[in-house]
């Protein structure tokens, strides 16, 4: 299964959570429930909180093919945005270890400094990134959690009582107040928001 098809996501019909799991599993679950559900169904990427637009026309094979094509397009766009030089069908690095080869644009003085370091440029850059992540102290993960929770709630909870107060508490890191503001909300929305707000969401 491609990485995109394995994307973890959650679908809501109104205020009710109807499916959670890999993108392909959720898509096919929704497909099987379409005739029994009135109103719009929103599917959220659990990593980003963004809505995933699903085209569920046709049978299972067509849906899988369509999603697979979208995944390849996203991967290609990501590579180009990051300055990647790998075209379709070309593989570099060590895929079994999750290594992704992309071009890095640096000034001459940066390349000169890297050339003097032991282990090669790639090893040095990986070490620098790892050190920055450790020094970050989890701040980036926490910011990402706040952002994905906000995206999710802005789509489903914007009209609920205490929404603005809950968002302010979220970004302030006041989780007691955040949870309290959501106390009267539909349980599926509240529970999913709490899960997304964690720096490392648990698998539901």
Helix content: 40-55%
Order of helices and strands: EEHEEHHHHHHH
Strand neighbour order, sheet with most strands? 2-1-3-4
Number of helices: 8
Percentage beta strand = 5-15%
Rg calc: 21 Å
Terminus-to-terminus distance: 21 Å
**Largest sheet data:** 4 strands, antiparallel
Low-confidence stretches: 83-95
**Shape from CA axes?**
flat
Number of E-state strands: 4
Number of domains: 2
Helical/strand content category: alpha+beta
> Average pLDDT across residues?
85
Describe this structure in words.
This protein has 204 residues and is of the alpha+beta class. The chain folds into 2 domains: 1-103, no CATH class; 139-196, no CATH class. It is built from 8 helices and 4 strands. A 4-stranded antiparallel beta sheet has the order 2-1-3-4, with helices on both faces. β3 (41-45) and β4 (51-52) form a beta hairpin. It is flat and about 65 Å long. The chain starts with 7 loop residues before the first strand and ends in an 8-residue tail after the last helix. Mean pLDDT is 85; it is low at 83-95.
What is the topology?
Layout lengths: L7 E6 L2 E7 H11 L7 E5 L5 E2 L7 H22 L26 H8 L4 H17 L2 H18 L6 H10 L2 H7 L5 H10 L8
Antiparallel strand pairs: 1-2, 1-3, 3-4
Helix pairs in contact: 5-6, 5-8, 6-7
């Amino acid at each position: 299964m491609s990485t995109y098809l394995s994307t973890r996501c959650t679908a809501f019909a109104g205020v009710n959570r109807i499916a959670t799991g890999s993108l392909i599993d959720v898509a096919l679950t929704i497909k099987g429930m379409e005739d029994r559900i009135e109103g719009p169904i929103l599917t959220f990427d659990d990593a980003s909180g963004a809505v995933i637009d699903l085209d569920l026309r046709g049978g299972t094979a067509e849906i899988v093919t369509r999603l697979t094509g979208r995944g390849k397009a996203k991967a290609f766009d990501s590579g180009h945005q990051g300055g990647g030089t790998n075209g379709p069908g070309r593989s570099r690095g060590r895929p079994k270890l999750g290594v992704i080869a992309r071009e890095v644009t640096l000034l001459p003085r940066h390349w000169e400094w890297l050339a003097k370091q032991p282990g090669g440029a790639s090893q040095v850059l990986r070490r620098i990134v790892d050190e920055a992540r450790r020094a970050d102290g989890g701040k980036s993960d926490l910011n990402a959690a706040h952002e994905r929770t906000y995206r999710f709630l802005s789509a489903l909870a914007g009209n609920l009582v205490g929404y603005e107060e809950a968002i302010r508490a979220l970004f302030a890191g006041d989780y007691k107040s955040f949870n309290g503001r959501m106390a009267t909300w539909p349980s599926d929305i509240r529970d999913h928001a709490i899960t997304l707000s964690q720096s490392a969401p648990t698998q539901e």
